Amino acid sequence: MSNIVNDIRIVITGIGLTAPNANNLPDFRKALLEGKSGIEMFETRYLPPVPAGVCTFDKFKHETKKAARRGTRAGSISIYCANEAVIDSGYDWQNKDHSRAGVFIGITEHGNVETENEVHSLAKYNNDVKFWTHHHNPRTVANNPAGEVTLNMKITGPHLCMGAACAAGNLGLIYGAQMLRLGEVDFALGGGVSESIHTFGIFASFKSQNALAHHEDPTKACRPFDKDRNGIVVSEGGCIYTMERLEDAKARGAKIYGEVAGYAYNSDATDFVLPNPERQAECMNLALKRAGMAPEDVDILNTHGTGTQQGDEHECEAARKVFPSAPRPYINNTKSYIGHCMGAAGALELAGNIPSFEDGLVHPTINLDNIDPECQLDGLVINKPKPVDDIKYIMNNSFGMLGINSVVILKKFED
After folding, report:
1. Which of 121, 145, 221, 297 is geometrically suited to a Cys-Cys bond with 293, CB 3.0 to 4.6 A?
2. Which residue range(s) make up the domain with 324?
3. Residues in the chain with pLDDT values less than 70
């Protein structure tokens, strides 16, 4: 695909989310502008309390208690976000053909929580497998979060979960846009979710890598680009967008948050964990090329920056390759508020920046008190919002383990 700019324009018409510091977009945006962190100390198995991002959405607003007991935490997050997105979109859901809707959700991993819980519980019964739940298989299949949405909302069109590590949130949006362009669906629910904090293994693994953040004040534990950063803050969360072809959105008089201008994803093919700045830069440049844009057209670059030493340095190196000279975009980081929401990260972080199109503010990176010289970037917005005259393009970076990179560029809608 040489250029994804074509006659089929894709727009975002609804947003549903839950983050560690908010459960809807207006509150999320308010928290980002006010510097409100959502990180707290969290109890997990076999470890002392750790900083983490915990969501507090109303689990039973759109889901019955019976369905929640049978399902998963990731499923509940997905159901909440999907229903909230549809409500926000103003789409006449009850009177539409549900076979023409699709669900495309990015995930980092799935099934770890349920498997750990079952193994832990089985020990109480001398490991007698007759006490193993018969719900285990449908809970742990990789398509579970998207599948639970289809069950809840009676969607009979396609559903899919994309396992794309920490690049997954962008991938959910990308797949939704692609399926709309292909004519496979007329209404796409796309984004990312994560239940990661409910598995002790993710904390234990990062700790064994010396990559698990710690700080006496949990709200200051996530510090991307700061010289004193010491690792990742693991968080749960979700963000799902409703997407439509522009002609369909206009026909029903929908409000439009923004237009998908470009996207790309690629692979490093170099290491299990360490990112490759060359490939990250290539991904960013490919998204720009497909959008028909030059680097200087980007107004906001939302970074992936997780707070790890090498990860942050490599992304900054990639950003300097793509934006080598002025004018550079304003640059921020959303994880500093909410930690790393894994599969939900890209979708949530993009959502937090979308209101910039209307309010003309770039939300800052918080906890950046002593910038690492290796992470110095012109345009970094630090600790307080930056007013900007006109914001037209937002680039959103999300990179993941096994060397998967994803970039989405969103454009302010202009008819």
Report:
1. 297
2. 264-411
3. 1-6
